């Protein structure tokens, strides 16, 4: 799967571990930055990753900042993006199964790296259940079209 990864300085170390993990599992990873621990704005990098999805260059994205809150706010400003800030396995499972989340957001300062990697694996492997959940996504799409245009 083609996946974009992005972080700010606070999420850089975790993003690098996630990127390595995804590549080892055969995914094609597009890293849009940041590329160091030098202080930067999460807004720029979260936006770039979401654009990769909306441009059709990536299927999903994983965004990392200190808490995950800033990146999730930025991501969900984009039409067609369903970003889920997840801190446990149940949240990731439901984000994929019920919401067809196409962006996983993680907080590097609130999750241990091995646990975050576990969340990534769930995000990458769980399917979307469809059915009644698709009806809700259709409602969200109509709302986006009304509000965002």
Low-confidence stretches: none
Largest sheet: 5 strands, parallel
Q: Count of DSSP E strands?
A: 5
Q: End-to-end distance, in Å?
A: 30 Å
SS field, number of helical segments: 6
Structure description:
The chain is of the alpha/beta class. The chain has a single domain, classed as Sugar-phosphate isomerase, RpiB/LacA/LacB (Ribose 5-phosphate Isomerase B, Chain: A, 3-Layer(aba) Sandwich), CATH 3.40.1400.10. Helices cover 50% and strands 16% of the residues. It contains 6 helices and 5 strands, in the order βαβαβαβαβαα. Strands 2-1-3-5-4 form a 5-stranded parallel sheet, sandwiched between helices. α4 links the parallel β4 and β5. α1 crosses α5 and α2 packs across α3. The longest helix has 17 residues. It starts with a strand and ends with a helix.
Give the secondary structure arrangement, pairings included.
Layout: E1 2-7, H1 12-24, E2 28-31, H2 42-54, E3 60-65, H3 69-75, E4 83-85, H4 89-99, E5 103-107, H5 113-125, H6 132-148
Parallel strand pairs: 1-2, 1-3, 3-5, 4-5
Summarize the structure.
This protein is α/β, with parallel strands linked by helices and 149 residues long. It is 50% helix and 16% strand. The mean pLDDT is 97.
């Amino acid at each position: 799967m083609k996946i974009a990864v992005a972080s700010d300085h606070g999420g850089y170390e975790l993003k690098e571990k996630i990127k390595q993990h995804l590549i080892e599992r055969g995914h094609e990873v597009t890293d849009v930055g940041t590329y160091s621990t030098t202080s930067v704005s999460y807004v720029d990098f979260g936006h770039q990753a979401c654009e990769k999805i909306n441009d059709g260059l990536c299927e999903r994205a994983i965004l990392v900042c200190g808490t995950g809150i800033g990146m999730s706010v930025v991501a969900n400003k984009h039409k067609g993006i369903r970003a889920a800030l997840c801190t446990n396995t149940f949240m990731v499972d439901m984000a994929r199964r019920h919401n067809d989340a196409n962006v996983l957001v993680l907080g590097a300062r609130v999750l241990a790296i091995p646990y975050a990697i576990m969340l990534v694996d769930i995000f990458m492997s769980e399917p979307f259940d469809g059915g009644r959940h698709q009806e809700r996504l259709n409602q969200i799409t109509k709302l986006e079209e009304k509000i965002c245009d």
